[in-house]
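agent> fetching stored inputs for the magnesium ion docking request
agent> found them:
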Amino acid sequence: MFKRISVLSEEVANQIAAGEVVERPASIVKELVENAVDAGAGDIRVEIEKGGCRSIRVSDNGSGIEREDVALVFERHATSKIARIDDIYDAGSFGFRGEAMASIASVTRVELLTRRPEDLAGTRALVEAGTISEITPAGLPPGTQITVTELFANVPARRKFLKTEATEQSACLDAVTRLALAHPEIRFSVRADGRSVFAAPAAAGVADRVAMILGKDFTDHHLTIAEYKENIELRGFVSTPAWTKSNSKSVYLFVNSRFIRDNSMMHALLAAYRQVIEPRRFPAAALFLRLPGEEVDINVHPAKLEVRFKNSRGVYDLVSGAVSRALAGAQASRDAVAYRLAPREKASVSPGFWRSSPYRTSSDKPQDVFSRQNLRQAIGGDLFARAGEQDVPSHVEDASCEERITFGHRIYLGQFAGTYLVFGSPGGLMLLDQHAAHERILLERLKASEKEQAASQPLLMPEVVTLTPAQMSLLSEALPLLAGIGLELEIFGRDAVVVKAMPVALPNVEPRRLVSDLVDQLSDGQATPSFTERKEKILASLACRAAIKANAELSAGDVAALCRDLEKTPFNATCPHGRPICVKFTLYEIERLFKRK
Ligand code: ADP
Ligand code: MG
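agent> prediction call returned; pasting tokens
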């Protein structure tokens, strides 16, 4: 059964190591661009073909490599960046393990062209499946150009894990975006299949670079963070509660200029937002933490995506405290303005919601279980009148009371907690979640419209939405599906899309918000290989965005229309996320609670 132990050949060892570092084209892009940053380049150009699956080229104008050292580049544990283990704590460089190039070369074909500015001639090297086949002098401009082809040709299993070209391209762009955010002084550009898809000219500082990359919506809705505590510094930008995202992918965290994923920092950030944004919504943020090298261990993850803080409590408190204070400051100044402009207006519901509501009829007003109108109905108008409330009855309200709203055989009693519609019948009570119900109605409408040749409503003023390059490449893949349901989008340059028409099935939603959430959903859906499943998720995200929110008061007309629509909708027991739409209590259950049974 057992075989004898033997030491793996270097080739196999490198291929195994490559599994950790070189997962997909984007990981190669990340390692090559990091090396270019480490080489002091001021201009880094990336070219990819077929999402990076066919070829990746990174050119820089950095320090170059001496010919004598070229062979060492592809050796494992060969690095120019550290010499002693302690060096990693104050290494200002991205690399220091000396294994990226060896790993990449073990699973691809690499051509290296390099020349130091001080040398007269440069060097060309060719490495195939980990073995150097050629090192020759070559006339070159200063800097380094590395071209990677035949990706994973010798590890077919890995090729099978690659996703669509659009997905791989978007991951490559994510990798460049993260590095570009942390290095505003460097010019970055990416061409994909010959087309320019990303261009960030050298910027004066982080603020300019963040604006360039995260787009206009973020710059229009941001708060600035700058706080210090002991030896930790936190700077950056977070979105105001008015601009939220449907996932956490627009949160960029950096530690000493290195992009990282850190649950604790993420948690601290979200904790600060908990009270001010809806559940299941996320902020956008670019936060840069700076602390002395000995305070953080960056050598705990093969691709250095995770770190360990010595004082993790301090980091948590700084992040959540600084963001909370920024949010509180913004809230205070907004409240002051709101008070001056409209002292009586309720902050929770925007007046515009009512004006444009699909369920709004001209004569009705928001209705709550505990509204005067309902109380009057419940305890009788006489009592109210006697209590000196003569001003309450009006013709309009009386008219709306005449016709009772029903769902099936149940009678609508009112809205509870701004979210649940309460219905009663002789058999018991039912609570209906207004958001979940509307979401299901819209989803089924979208699905039907997809089959039938969807109706779309052209926008009088086409709206331009800016997106990141990574989002752009995902969106272009989904354009035909979206056109099929009546959402007409047109790519506009490298980083914007024009919304030309909206689906008739989705009234009452801002095109900008709809598209922004949609691209969040597209990047979430990357892991789902089946097209039907991805499509279902896209439609569900559109429905979710367009649906009436929880915590919105509904008028009688709104409720009546919702009930009529829901009665006609298939699958009306659960919302698209699988949560129940309604919960029922039988009379028997209620009587048991009162110990009558
Ligand atoms: P590490 O970055 O951890 O040192 P790598 O395997 O990524 O290891 O690279 C090995 C060495 O090759 C680097 O230490 C550096 O000296 C050299 N090198 C790689 N890419 C470049 C580049 N673009 N410009 C200059 N030197 C480079
Ligand atoms: Mg490196």
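agent> quick read of the result: The two ends are 68 Å apart (CA to CA).
agent> awaiting further instructions
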